[in-house]
Write a structure and sequence with these properties.
Elements: E1 2-4, H1 11-22, E2 25-28, H2 30-42, H3 50-63, H4 65-68, H5 76-79, H6 82-92, H7 95-110, E3 115-119, H8 122-126, E4 133-137, H9 140-149, H10 156-172, E5 185-188, H11 194-208
Parallel strand pairs: 1-3, 1-4, 2-3, 4-5
Helix pairs in contact: 1-11, 2-6, 3-7, 6-10, 9-10
The structure holds cytidine-5'-monophosphate (C5P).
The site of cytidine-5'-monophosphate (C5P) has 14 residues, from helix 2, helix 6 and helix 10.
Pfam families: Cytidylate_kin (PF02224)
EC number: 2.7.4.25
GO molecular function, one term: kinase activity
Length: 209
């Protein structure tokens, strides 16, 4: 199952609840791009230096697939800082790096057949034949307020600026831009509670069995 949409549209909260309810594995693909952004900052690598970023990706992925996917070693606190948020879009723009992350996500999914993968290009590029696709969205103000409430570092204004900048970067990049897949179910979560979002998604999950 693929769950895509802009930052803080409610993808993670809803996907985790669905995964638990339906006994599915869950993967947040943004962690891979955040791991690379975090390591670039830590190692003083310019995130727009494609060759250096590819070498970094090979080094991290060479240690283990789990490490590149951010499944071990890195805490959410380390990956969700304002600094990482500031550079992650530059990292996610690099087409060759996206191919490597995509291949790693596919390898993970081959061992986790019943799974929910969340991101920006999951239903369009990574798993175009997913059994079920959702595209979650919400107003930018609502999304920024949610991030602040989740205690992400930074003030409302800083978080709003970060969300706007990432929306713009994700929507306009040449490689796998953020798009709703034609066969994805659109849910605008602006005025919905988490329970309502999960209910809508659950009904569709039951439909596909
Ligand atoms: O989901 P999250 O906000 O953690 O993702 C961080 C960044 O990683 C996004 O802003 C986007 O630029 C990038 N990303 C992506 N493709 C994905 C998941 C995330 O480009 N499938």
């Amino acid at each position: 199952m693929a769950v895509d949409g802009p930052a803080a549209a409610g993808k993670t909260t809803a996907s985790l609840r669905l995964a638990r309810a339906f006994g599915m594995s869950y993967l947040e693909s943004g962690r891979a791009y955040r791991v690379l952004a975090y390591e670039a900052l830590r190692n003083n690598i310019n995130p727009t230096d494609q060759a250096a970023m590819l070498a970094l990706c090979a080094a991290v992925g060479g240690r283990s697939r789990a490490e590149l996917l951010g499944l071990n070693r890195y805490t959410s606190g380390e990956l969700r800082t304002t600094e990482v948020g500031r550079v992650v879009s530059a990292v996610a723009k690099i087409a060759e790096l996206r191919t490597r992350v995509t291949n790693t996500l596919r390898a993970w999914a081959a061992g986790n057949r019943r799974s929910i993968v969340e991101g920006r290009d999951i239903g369009t590029v990574v798993f175009p034949s997913a059994a079920l696709k959702f595209y979650l969205t919400a107003s930018v103000e609502t999304r920024a307020a949610r991030r602040v409430a989740q205690e992400e570092s930074g003030t409302y204004q800083e978080v709003l600026a970060d969300v706007l900048r990432r929306d713009q970067a994700d929507l306009t990049r040449a490689a796998s831009p953020l798009r709703q897949a034609p066969d994805a179910i659109l849910i605008d979560t602006t005025t919905l509670t988490v329970d309502q979002v999960v209910d809508r998604m659950s009904h569709r999950c039951r439909d596909v069995g």
